[in-house]
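Hi Y.,

Following your request, here is the sequence exactly as I used it, all 118 residues.
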Amino acid sequence: VQLVESGGGLVQAGGSLRLSCAASGSIFSIDKMGWYRQAPGKERELVAAAASSGETAYYADSVKGRFTVSRDNAKNTLYLQMKTLKPEDTATYYCAASHVDSGEYDYWGQGTQVTVSS
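Below is the corresponding structure, written out as tokens. Let me know if you'd prefer a different format.
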């Protein structure tokens, strides 16, 4: 399974961005998918996740009400719509997917940088 993120960039505080994650390869083996982020000097954290059906499973408290995760299984793509961005949202955002047999995030994208200026 290969995951390729896109959509990152530089935005002013209060602005919006939409990240995309295109999956390819053994798509049938993917179960849940999610977005992680890692800021410099901080640990990687799970931001949002969606189950295989596309139902939202999880949002970090810090993004609830501002971020929306969605999944288009027909396009093998995961999205993260980010609104009302804050400087503290600045990080590298990673797409991740779990194998149906493991329950863990086994597959990772290369990451896309999101920078929010104040």
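DSSP finds no helices and eleven strands in the chain.

Thanks again,
Q.
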